[in-house]
Amino acid sequence: MSFTEKELGPLHELTVQALNNLAMLRMENKGDFESGEKILKETLERADAHIGKYSSLGLALINNLSASYGNSGRYEEGMAYYREAVERKLIVLGELN
């Protein structure tokens, strides 16, 4: 990950994607939801601010964050992110998609 960030910078889409992948691996393979959640939140903020809330990467990040809450049994906390993900997807994809 540090290679990606050094070579491409912290705001490059590939860096953000690498952080997303790292977070998902920590949660899915190691069961480390706390660390994965922290990485996803920081990465989502980075993506929203610099890549765009409605980019495919931004949509994937918020969806992954909402799913991570559900997977760790924290459904109520995840609902806010899930609703935001649905709202963003409706804007991008439309209601008939």
Describe this structure in words.
This protein is mostly helical and about 100 residues long. It contains 5 helices and no strands. It has helices spanning about 1-10, 15-30, 35-50, 55-70, 75-95. Helix 2 runs antiparallel to helix 3, helix 2 (about 15-30) runs parallel beside helix 4 (about 55-70) and helix 3 (about 35-50) runs antiparallel to helix 4 (about 55-70). It is flat. The mean pLDDT is about 90.
Q: Helix content range of the residues, please?
A: over 70%
Structural category: mainly alpha
Q: Give the strand tally.
A: 0
Separation of termini?
Answer: 34 Å
Total DSSP helices: 5
Radius of gyration: 13 Å
Oligomer: single chain
Give the strand content.
under 5%
Q: Stretches where pLDDT falls below 50 for ≥5 residues?
A: none
Give helix and strand order, one letter per element, not per position. HHHHH
Brief summary:
The chain is mainly alpha-helical and 97 residues long. The chain has five helices and no strands. Helix 2 runs antiparallel to helix 3 and helix 4 packs antiparallel against helix 5.
How do the strands and helices of this protein lay out in sequence?
Elements: H1 2-8, H2 13-30, H3 33-50, H4 56-71, H5 75-93
Helix pairs in contact: 2-3, 2-4, 3-4, 4-5
Q: Keywords for this structure?
A:
single chain, 97 residues, mainly alpha, flat
